[in-house]
Amino acid sequence: MSVNRMTTATAPEGPDGVPTPLRGRDIERAFIEARLDALDRGRGGIVRVEGPAGIGRSRILAEAAAAARRRGTRVFQGAADPHEQFVPLGPLLEGVLAGEEPLADAQRLRDLAGTPGRRFWLLQELGDRLREAARNGPLLVVLDDLQWCDDLTLLTFHSLAAGLSSHPILWIVAVRGGSVPPGVRTTLDRIRQAGAHGLALGALGDRAVARIAEDVLGAPPGPDVLRLARRAEGVPRLLVELLGSLPGEAVTIENGTARLTAGPPAPRELPSVVRRLDQLSDEAAELVRTTAAVGGTVTVALLAELFGRSSAALMTAVREALDADLLAESGDRLAFRHDLVREAVEAGLPLSLRQALSRQAAGSAPGSTPADAAEGGGAARGDAAEADRLRAEAAELSGTAPGTAAERSLKALELIAADAPERPRVIAETIPLLWQTGRAARARALGATALAAGGLGPEDEALIRLALARLAVPIDFSEAVLQARAGAALPGVSPTVRARLLATLAVGLSMSGAHAAAEQVAAEAWETAAAAGDRSAEATLTTVRSAVSFHRMDLAEAFRQAERSAALADALGVSTSLWVPEALWHALLANTTGRTEEALAVVEEGIRATREQGRTAATRMWLMTRTRVLLETGRLAEARADAEAAAPAADDPGPGNLADVTLRYVMLRVALHTGDRRTAEAYAAEARRMRSDGAPVVRHFGTWMLALTADHEGRPDRAMAALDAVMTSPAADRPAYAGLIDPADAPVLVRMALRAGAHERAAQAVAMAEKRAVLNPDLPFLAATAAHARGLLDNDLAPLVRAVRLYEDCPRVLARASALEDAGRKLAATRKPEAVPYFETALALYARSGAEWDVARVGRRLRAAGVRRRPSTDGLSDAWPELTAAELRVVRLVAQGLTNREAAGHLSLSPHTVGSHLRRAFTKLDVTSRAELTRLVRLRDDGA
Q1: Contact 277, 285 (CB under 8 A)
Q2: What is the DSSP annotation of 554-596?
Q3: Tens digit of each residue's pLDDT (9 = 90 or more) over 549-602
């Protein structure tokens, strides 16, 4: 009898139209069920389902959603579409706003999504709505085909998953294996680092293949059918379509077994292959069809000759075919991922066309020169015009949509021949766009390849070196100096380009800590920039002037120049700035001088603006800067969260010098304050690496980090030995605080030096602190640090008490707590009762910051002063010995039913920080849900 088959879908259907069971995925289903069990207990997380096209990723997601619904879990499902990548947030919004039970206020969210400039608020609203939904029960959010998601969807997914990690929300995302766009790879790396579970789908085994064949054909397969089925190589979709596409008369069922009636069938088109071809651009689809026609394994040079174009002009089409998982690279050749795919593509071509292309390919001599070299290697006239159009679009979009601008610029580069005179200029235009959108490694490789090829004129080489220097400024200070210096030394460079190279060189020297050299180069750069009338170079050089004034301790002038620099950069537009963004320096300057609230306001605006513009590199720089501000204000959990979020990507082309002097330094300090020995050891290892860096400032930071670590371990002698090289370096290039990172480190150094018996070093630090305070009388923070250092050096209570008083109006929580502790120590020697209030206030400040190591130390001082129990200070409670004060405040608000965002509003924290406190509290208290936490709070606070 013949067989009727009703499906070509990944999830086969039986004769009654009901989907057949999922075959061969018992382990994967058990894993999903385990994650749903954990979700029922209040534990969310992320699951990444990965595998090649047709392997069954979407089916696994559908099974997970169905299993969750059976449990009563609320499910949101979205999927990306390759044709709708231009719709920002489309896949995620589809998931949470469509369906049977959309999020609350769906219309408001749609309105925000459609309003330019409101995407930041959309992210906040989405987070709020998901938190509110999670209060009523666990949520499952499913996002399919992550490889086709737009950049904003990727950023929003990662931000929401991180910010909501303490809520009962499980995210299951599916992504195609192999080559994916850089933004997708970055997102996958980030969620992997955050603890995402991986679920890699492999080929099905013979037993599962036989079961699927039975599902499709209605009877167990015979040996001939099994031989045909094995051609699918365990790929479920190809298997289903291969069997489902057989004509009805091609299969019979005899004695309960399905058999082929006339041997293996001729190749036929397969629906999934047709769909994937339809999703390609016309050029890429033509390339795939041509590859199939000529035999399925070809060189790009041969394809270029068949098309009559250059190999470079085919780059985008080749990449598109690779990304679609239709083709794969095999040495220097292209081949089909799967033989069935090649046959399906070939089956859709007319026989006459297949024969003509095969003959043409066979007639190409192995050593013949392809179209790359035809007509002198120049691009076709139409390609040149298209390249010009794409360059113009990239220039226009660079200030508002750098990601799109980068793609336009890359496309233009593909259309321009290797020896075209304009190619170096396009490379120089493309490098900063790639860097700004988080593709620094690719940008650097592009420039390095161009320089290595040689044959560049001075102007072209200078432009490429300028682009590489700009890229290197936050990554490798020494590399920035090298590239800028080499470019500026080239003969015959135009005044504008030379001015920008010198300005970038001055910035690189200043950031690296070579202050005297920076000042000297800046003087020459000013003359060149003035002659060229270049305002962009002027903005950068004004930042250098501010840094020079800072090094000279003239902070009023430093602020004036910093404000002028930021204003100039804003007026010019961020895309033309040589150091993106100049306002970073303003924020760092404000923070270092105690104007912390001003610094935080500048940073928050920088993060908001760069996120809206899609400037990945600038956003990371701002986040790194914010880690320093949050550290100094005692917001340790938030500082750690920012440092983790801004961690350099694995493929960053350099050591990440800005990360060295911000987030790595911050992570070590947080680890020391919280008693996190393992993390402290990890970042001490980073500090040892930093001590051999080519940039003086990085060496200084590494040295100070090692000194802090040694002192923390009770080895002040080793700490001072580490600092000797810094404190005896030439004054011109010595850090502005005599080897320290921040003015508040002066008392730390004095305490360290006195314990090591290095009185001269202590006196040197005090003299520097007092000189800075005298030169800048309008900055009380500097006066506080000087008084604190003096009190320690002289063992004098009066300066210590004065420091405490001066710190009261300063948001430097840790510095104030340290002064209170030191004043208490002095009083405890002779007047223990008077010391107790100082210790209690210091303890409360440390506790509020989450500085558990400091809390324990001050607690010991209180006990030595006769206080036998922990005082009732600002949230501290004997009923909650596991928690810090900050964690306890969050726990009590959450137990009252508040969302993370509502609790954040009450506590003037970010929701991300509240989530961090809550995660730590869950771990310490060994609870897994908010309901369990609420019961525990009621139990303990009622005194049971």
Answers
A1: yes
A2: -HHHHHHHHHHHHHHHHHH-GGG-SSS-THHHHHHHHHHTT-H
A3: 988 889 999 999 888 887 777 777 644 444 445 678 888 889 988 888 889 888
Helix (H) or strand (E) holding 601: helix 596-613
Q: Is 563 exposed, middle or buried (0-12, 13-18, 19+ CB in 10 A)?
A: middle
The H-or-E segment that residue 424 falls in is helix 423-436
CB distance 220 to 210 below 8 Å? yes
pLDDT digits (tens, 9 = 90+) for 796-853: 999 999 999 999 878 899 999 999 999 999 999 889 889 999 999 999 999 888 898 9
Q: Is the dihedral of CA 766, 769, 774, 780 positive or negative?
A: negative
Helices (H), 713-796: 716-727, 745-755, 759-775, 780-794
Residues 48/51/52/57 CA torsion (nearest 10 deg):
-70
What does the DSSP 8-state code read for residue 378?
P
Tell me how far apart the alpha carbons of residues 557 and 542 are, in angstroms, rounded to a whole number.
11
The distance in angstroms from the start CA to the end CA of the chain is 76
Question: 């089916």: which residue's tokens?
Answer: 59
Instruction: Round to whole Å and give the CA distance between 471 and 887.
Output: 40
Most confident of 83-87, 369-373, 471-475, 549-553: 549-553
| Residue 426 CA from chain centroid, whole number | 27
What is residue 374's DSSP assignment?
Answer: G
The single-letter DSSP state of residue 737 is B
Per-residue pLDDT at 853: 92
Q: What is the pLDDT of residues 732-764, one digit of tens each?
A: 444 443 345 789 999 999 999 999 999 999 999
pLDDT tens digits for 237-278? 989 888 888 877 788 888 889 888 876 677 788 888 888 898
Give the three-state DSSP class for 764.
helix
What angle do the packed helices 885-895 and 911-925 form, to 10 degrees? 90
DSSP for 88-153?
A: TTHHHHHHHHSSSSPPTTHHHHHHHHTSTT-HHHHHHHHHHHHHHHHHTS-EEEEEE-GGG--HHH
Q: How confident is the model at residue 351 (pLDDT cuts 50, 70, 90)?
A: confident
Distance CA 486, CA 303 (A): 40
d(CA 61, CA 437): 30
Show the tokens assigned to 836. 């107790």
Contact 378, 417 (CB under 8 A): yes
**Coil, strand, or helix at residue 48?**
strand
Mean pLDDT, the chain, integer: 82
| Beta carbons of 92 and 143 less than 8 angstroms apart | yes
Label residue 862 exposed, middle or buried (CB < 10 Å: 0-12, 13-18, 19+). Answer: buried
The token pair that represents 837 in the structure block: 């209030």
Written as one letter, the residue type at 187 is: T
Alpha-carbon distance 685 to 683, whole Å?
Answer: 5
Closest CA to 850 of 824, 880, 883: 883
**Amino acid type, 33:** E
Tokens representing 663 are 């987030």
Cβ proximity of 213 and 206 under 8 Å? no
Q: What is the largest CA-CA distance in the chain?
A: 105
Give pTM, 2 decimals.
Answer: 0.57
d(CA 522, CA 504): 9
In the chain, count H helices and then E strands.
46, 10
Count of other CB atoms within 10 angstroms of residue 30: 10
239, 207 contact by CB (below 8 A): no
∠ CA(173), CA(176), CA(180), 5° rounding? 105
Helix orientation angle between 852-864 and 665-674, rounded to the nearest 10 degrees: 40
Q: Are 450 and 456 in contact (CB under 8 A)?
A: yes
User: DSSP states of 148-176 as a string?
Assistant: G--HHHHHHHHHHHHHTTTSSEEEEEEEE
